[in-house]
Structures are given as C-alpha cells and as structure tokens.
Amino acid sequence: MSPPLPHDVRPLPPAARRPRRRRARLAAGTQPVPLIDADRVDGEWTPPDLRLASALQRQLLPPVPADLAGVPIATAYRPAHHIGGDFYDLVATGDGRVMAVMADVSGKGMAAALVMARVAMDVRRALVGSASPSDALAYVNRTLAARVPDDMFITAICLEVDLRRRRARAANAGHVPLFVRSADGTARTVAAASGAPLGVLRDETYAVESVDLRARDILVLMTDGVTDALDPSGDPAAGATATVVSRAAPDVHAVVAALVAAVDRRTAGGRPDDVAVLALEIP
Predict the structure, then answer these.
(1) This prediction's pTM
(2) φ/ψ of residue 68, rounded to 5
(3) Separation CA 211–CA 217 (nearest Å)
(4) In the chain, which stretches have pLDDT less than 70?
(5) Cα 121 to chain center, whole Å?
(6) Are 165 and 171 within 8 A, CB to CB?
(7) Which residue, of 46, 87, 144, 264, is most buried by count of CB atoms within 10 Å of its CB?
(8) Residue 274: which of 105, 48, 60 has the closest Cα?
C-alpha cells in the first residue's frame, strides 16, 4: 500500500494550470523539448553562486557507505553543467531489503536542479514507506503531478533487492532499464517495459519485473547521459553500454569507473548531459 500523500499536496486551481498539451504529447509517445535553456540559466549566476549551488545540490545526494546492509555499493555523479537534474537514493528497510531509485529530471542546469530538490524529498519518503517499487513510483508520481511545470517531467527506475531471497524487483517510469551483470561476465537488462515518466499522468500505474540473483551479481542503475553517449542510435541492452558493463572487472567500483570512462571517451570529456551511475553487488 502506498504511503499517504502529505497534507500540503493540493491540485493547482484551474486558473493557475498551464495547458496540458505538452504532457498529452508525451503520454502519446512524443518526446517534448524542454523549454529551459540550461546554458542561459547558468550564465546568469556568478561563479561563487554556482559553486555554492553545486555544493548544496550534492548534499541532497545520500552519503554512500562502502556497503549498506552488507551490500557493496559504488556511485558516480557528473553534472553536464555546474548543477544538474540527475538523482539517486537508496535505503536499507530493516527487513532484509534494500530499496534504490535513479531519476533524471528533463533538461539541465538550474531549472532541473530545483525540480530535483523537490523530487529528492518525495523519493526518500516513498522508499521508506512503500511496499514495492511500483508503489514507490506511483506515490512520487501522484505527488509531483500537481507540482511539476508542464514542460518538465522526471524519468525514474525503482529497485528493490531482497537479500534473504536473492531476488530483485524493479519498476520503470520512462527510464534506462536495470542492468544485471552476472558473476560470469554476462549482462542483461530488467524492467525495460516502462510506464509514463513521473509527473505526466497522475493515475499512472507501474508494472514490476522480477529477477533471481546469485552471489556476486552486480546491479547497475544509470541515467541516459550514459546510454545516449554510448549507444546514441542503438539498444543499450545489446550495444556498447552492455559491453562495458560485462567487460569491466567484477567489482562495483570497477563497473562504475568503466562506464564513466567510456562516456568520457565518447564525448571527449565534454558531457552533453548529466551522468549518474549506481552499482550494488549481491553478497
């Protein structure tokens, strides 16, 4: 059962709502072009302002221990500008499960960062109080639907790892699927089927896909800053992204480092999009 919505969540009055045409196009499968020019927005800030904003934004990302509930973890976060719209979070629920989310706000720069700050609070509440990945995404979606500007949306994937059963479940809201790297080096994707991005359709539901795991399997969440750089016109599940995941050394830090290095090589160090990666190893 999803956690209750906070009391301060109220739909905007009709006069305050913008036309919904952009969201309707997105729901129909047409990708909208964000109206925010991140270069222009960032350019209105002085270097000290940007350094402070960058430091404050990084504080929204959870401190990642070497392991969480016995699960080795590694992360990387590289905004395209001083600040960005990618976000991740993970929690140990206390009942043998680890819940994680990777999210990506449309656009870049200050506008995406401000929406990301809102998403961060809602995601943490959902991870702590939800019984499943689909419940978590549905809760965040309902919360954001009345708040996100019509020209913005959030893609996300929610992962639940049951350590006792060595089983993972994932639900997808328009995001890059989960990659699973087996101990033998093979890589496959989970939760490629997707519901609408968060903040688009208030009553959207999200299907859950399950996968059995083995010791030393590595689960990898990432944003499209990785897959768009490595597989700009192909399927990441069968392209360079999967190859990098499978050929990396069998260690969470090595997998994350290999993906970031591959993006840097493809983009000559000048990332056109934010990049975030989170990897967990099954003990």
Answers:
(1) 0.80
(2) -130, 115
(3) 11
(4) 1-60, 82-83, 107-109, 269, 271
(5) 14
(6) no
(7) 87
(8) 105
